[in-house]
Amino acid sequence: MNSLKILTVRGIDIRLHPTFPLILLWAGLQFGLAGGSWASAVFGVLAVTALFVLVTLHELGHSFAAQHYGVPVKQIVLTPIGGVAQLDHIPEKPIQEFVIAIAGPAVNFMIAIMMGMAVWGFGIEISNPLFALSIGGLSWAALFSYVFVYNIFLALFNLLPAFPMDGGRVLRALLAMRLDYVRATDIAAAIGRGLAVLMGIYGLFNGGIFLVLIAVFIFTGAAQEAHMVRLRGTLRGYRVHQAFSPSVYRLTPYSNLQQAVNLMLSSGQSNFPVCQGDELVGFVSQPQLMMALRTRGPHTWVNMIMQRNVQPVSPLADLYEVQQRLDREGVDALPVVSGDGRFLGIITRQNMNDLRRLVTVAPNSLPKVQSA
Ligand SMILES: [Zn+2]
Predict the structure, then answer these.
(1) 257 C-alpha to ligand 1 centroid (Å)
(2) Is residue 372 scored above 60 in pLDDT?
């Protein structure tokens, strides 16, 4: 099932996950049963809709900050348990990560201030929203109170200093201003795990099953982030020429797709440089090849389907940066071209995994090039 696009803001699609209506149903049911009337069911649906408007604004805060730093934002997806802004990548510059992470909760604080001013200016009464619900059911004052309280809760909860919450990123960014990125992540992740354990224990002894679930979510989130960053970090300081594959099969612009497929099947190579002599003129990845085979047939020339504008990497490029580029562009391989324009080979995810495995078991087998 596809998610439903409801709005586009600054090029960012805001979408509802197919399971999203479940939360509205749940809200109607919960509030309806608690209040004992249709009016309270309607109140529940309105209240939860308002909460998701807050969540969307929060995610837009992250998104606009990301766009400010040139990070593309694909979409914001709303699911029953919250919203996610899908950023192309999280910048490693601490100040940028800090601003992007804090921008979400900052939006909630701004809304809180505005609502506070409305309370002060128009004399709106803030009551305990659950109390308001139990006596009156549907009322604007109760809805206002509900949004007011939840909005502050949303900001504070997201600022918990634990991955994958915004507070975890804020903490890591602050630490990374002084420390190495991997070290900063390790410390932030350890604090997150500690917090999760305390939260879990508290939840267990007080019967808060929801709190225990959140604790598990935070604990695994922190571990994942630390693992991922450490994994990426192992590549730093190694260069492309230490890991790439120089002897690869090449296609010419006038090879046809059948020849490409035969090569793929016989060699196991899945990404092909297209060369004229020693000059790289294009690149064909496996998904491109498969797609072209289906839509155009096996006798098509490679130059009809190859990617011409692929930016090659230098043999001196840092593998860590190359890895980031692969992740960002969602590809498995890139061509390697020397400074004087000669095609040298390709660098693949497989190459990098091999190098990572090698230096994990035998750290001294390959010298690191100290980067500036
Ligand atoms: Zn956030």
Answers:
(1) 46
(2) no
